Amino acid sequence: MKIGVPKEIKPEEHRVGLVPSSVKELVQHGHEVFVEQNAGAGISANDTDYTQAGATILRTAEEVFATAEMIVKVKEPQEVEWKQLKAHHILFTYLHLAPDPKQAQGLVDSGCTAIAYETVTDDQGGLPLLAPMSEVAGRLAVIEGASCLKKPSGGKGLLISGVPGVAAANVMILGGGVVGTNAAKLAVGLGARVSILDRSIPRLRQLDDLFGGRTNNCYSTEAAIEELLPTTDLVIGAVLLPGAAAPKLIRREHLAAMSAGSVLCDVAIDQGGCFETSKPTSHTNPTYMVDGILHYCVANMPGATPMTSSYALNNVTLPFTVALANEGLNALERLPHLKAGLNVQAGKLVHPEVIEALKGQVA
User: Hey, which bits of 67-222 come out as E strands?
Assistant: First the structure.
């Protein structure tokens, strides 16, 4: 199969769909890989690294799309990209279609087969291709949230760890999944006082065992959130409903309960965000203020650490990429967990949660 890797063009996105070692693996399976010039610059992989791995370097993205049968990316295709997709293309990347009807319509109109990393499943009901980026984003949420709490950043001027005689920050994490757990690990390690809210009692039990009493693990209700907000300095939104839009757990009226300079960090922004006042931001302009509360809502947080993120992502996507290259769409029937990643096929939305989220918005 001819596999194409275009350079990511979403603003401030420096990851790459295939790292050189993945290219070498695919070439050893008898496939051709076509990489856009300088696609790996963000991870310090130059064109020579790719040619030595067996890839062919093409000058433009247009050449990559015109040559390839399968496109492997990181972020959702931008308009100029989805307009180059054709019915014969397999697109394998993050899509996050639920809050993005325009992209969904573009993919439907293209006739391509679009498989989303974030809805591929595993035997335990997890999302293995989302997990490594969730690990990165969860840890970054604490790093960035702690930075936002500094006065020059617009925060209240609080050191997340505190110092002897001065209390550490109170951190509320909404969601105890991969993002939330990794955020909690880093926040606890920094000495913050951490509360994790989740609606799964089995998960709360696991968190109790994992943190051994170092976190306050609560069943998530509106009342529980409202009780904690007045003393919370940093809220990390880490809620995920696979394929669906994130629930709005903190509404604008809740902000009045928080002290000025507190921070909301919305890791769920790719799925529409779990705060009513959230809107996507960029690494260049990551924050904005609403009612005295600083919001950090960068939509591609792992893009800030492209080397770590690209290799971590390739570690989990490569087996599925190889399967698609070897078997084409037949791989979907052999691998039901990969089939769960199917979002668009033959001009139709096919993922149930995506269909529900975009009801009436996509023709």
Answer: 70-72, 90-93, 113-116, 170-174, 193-198, 215-219
Nearest 10 degrees: Cα torsion 296, 302, 308, 310: -170
| pLDDT tens digits for range 62-114 | 999 999 999 999 999 999 999 999 999 999 999 999 889 999 999 999 999 99
The residue behind tokens 């769960």 is 340
Reported as a pLDDT band with limits 50, 70 and 90, residue 40 is: very high
Provide CB contacts within 8 A for 35, sequence distance 6+. 4, 5, 18, 23, 47, 50, 55, 56, 57, 58, 64
Closest CA to 8 of 341, 318, 306: 306
**pLDDT number for residue 125:** 85
Structural domains of the chain ordered from first start: 2-120+306-357 (3.40.50.720), 131-303 (3.40.50.720)
Token pair, residue 291, equals: 């009612």
How far is 226 from 217, CA to CA, in rounded Å?
15
- 9 Cβ neighbours under 8 A, 6+ residues apart: 61, 78, 80, 81
pLDDT digits (tens, 9 = 90+) for 14-25: 999 999 999 999
pLDDT of residue 343: 98
| Model confidence, pTM | 0.87
* Helix residue ranges per DSSP H, 68-130: 79-82, 101-110
Closest by Cα among 179, 143, 159, 95 to 362: 95
Residues known to be catalytic: 96, 270
Which amino acid appears at position 74 of this protein? V
